[in-house]
Amino acid sequence: MGAGHAHPLHLPRDSAVHRLPPQVKIVAAFLGVVCVVATPREAFIVFAGYPLVLGAVWWAARIPLGWILRRAVIELPFVVLAVLLPLTGPDPRIEWLGMSLSEPGLLGAWNILVKGTLGVLTSLTLAATTSMRDLLVGLQRLRAPALVTTIATLMLRYVDVIVAEAGRMRLARISRGHDPRFLWQAGATARGVGALFVRSYERGERVHLAMLSRGWSGTMPVLSTAGLATRRAWMVGLAPVAVAAVLAGSGWVIV
Amino acid sequence: MSGSTHDSVVAMHMSDGLVNAPTSLLFGAVALVWLVLAALRARADLDDRTAPMAGLVTAFVFAVQMINFPILPGASGHLLGGALVAILVGPWVGTLCIAIVLVVQALLFADGGLTALGTNITNMALIGVVVGYGVALALRPLARRGKGGLAATAFVAAFLNTVVAALGFVVEYAIGGSGGASLGTVFGLMVGLHALIGIGEGVITAATVTAVAAVRPDLVYLLRHERRPLLRRAAGAAS
Predict the structure, then answer these.
(1) Closest residue of A to B151, CA-based?
(2) Of the candidates B16, B106, B179, which has its C-beta nearest A37's C-beta?
(3) How close, in Å, is residue B52 to chain A by CA atoms?
(4) Which residue of A79, B12, B17, B45 has the fewest C-beta atoms within 10 A of its own C-beta?
């Protein structure tokens, strides 16, 4: 538990992107997605440009393409939802392979799919290159209220506590012959959830006291080498955003 | 922890591009105003003892969102946590807790779009928490009566929190939805599915709140003025 508190989507590497100050990466990711969402959906060709920008970032961050794509299946539920849209959407309809598809529905599905996918890929890129504590430091430097960073820090600390406690309880259940399936696991989960909360709180209380006794003051101590953002760091970090902004702008021109 | 994160997308997290840019902006502004208000008001509720509680509730919502229970083939539900945090730590701190969960999920787990943060926070941290707390407050006389009353209060608050938050999505979709689905379809899908999720949410919220109230009644915000004020003070002095 005392380890680096890695999150499952983090890919530790030593690259220029990993070394960028976290606040730069958060702002860049956010602005990048804003550009994608602001692009008109009919500007089909422009959407081919965004993956190239992301690809360049992955190359610079030394993230393998397969690593990103495997984790992009996060998005699958949305794909299912989007498939419904052409079938249920309003008129006018077009015939395709014997099916009657709604044209606004098709456009809507394309819109959700492409923008959702690009959003997920951007978030994945941020997550892969930023550790949890770097993210907190980044939020702190972006002037998030101390209250918020305190709760967020404690939350990330306690996630480990809860996961460990839940693991112990699950092991205890299974070793007593529990084999949950379908809806019936809801009952066991729900009954266990109350106990899990109380057990975690009691452990968490001790963790908090330990943190206090080690001098924790409510803010994240800045230990990492990622220093304050220099002008150069901002320029490097925002360069892909500038390309994305040009792409979004050209989308409006050609439509 | 890994591998289970993708399941938690199903319930209410909206992705980028689901609503258009002006709508995202509008609800981003709504969410921001609400968060600033909550941050200002939460200060009064948060001290050395309640800060770790808030952290734990936040972590709990975060972790429990990864425990999914299947509802229908291909669809699973998870706790949204609005009513739970409102009852345990109050509406202001609770708002911050849910918002933090959503921000961390969007930034680190690619769960919910970055530009959809405004709409997601509006649905779950504003509508969810306000409805959950409002219902719980209205039913507080019932909750004071004992374990059964408290469980019923938590259940109803959590159920309505889920369904009304789903309605919030329908409203956002009506204002700026970029999909081609008709509003009726979206309404039926969202509200129908979330009525089912709401039952699970209600069960889990009731179980959690009653478990906490049984062991540590001093930690239940909704009942903070009701029971054993001496115990609260003693617990406060302990940390």
Answers:
(1) A194
(2) B16
(3) 7
(4) A79
Other beta carbons less than 10 A from residue B77's beta carbon: 26
pLDDT at position A21 is 86
Query: For residues A148 and A3, which has the higher predicted lDDT (pLDDT)?
Result: A148
Tokens 């989007």 belong to which residue? A82
Tokens at A73, concatenated: 């299946």
The residues spanned by each domain of chain A are 16-138+224-254, 146-213
Residue tagged 């052409």 (tokens): A86
Residue labelled with tokens 């007593």? A176
Contact call for B185 and A86, based on CB within 8 A: no
Q: Which residue of A has its CA nearest to B2?
A: A8
| pLDDT > 80? residue A93 | no
pLDDT tens for residues A225-255? 555 678 888 888 888 888 888 888 888 888 7
Mean of per-residue pLDDT scores for chain A: 78
User: Tokens at residue B204, please?
Assistant: 């889990």
Q: What DSSP assignment string belongs to A193-241?
A: HHHHHHHHHHHHHHHHHHHHHTT--SS----SS--SPPHHHHHHHHHHH
Domain architecture of chain B: domains with CATH = 18-238 (1.10.1760.20)
Nearest chain A CA: its distance from B3 CA (Å): 8
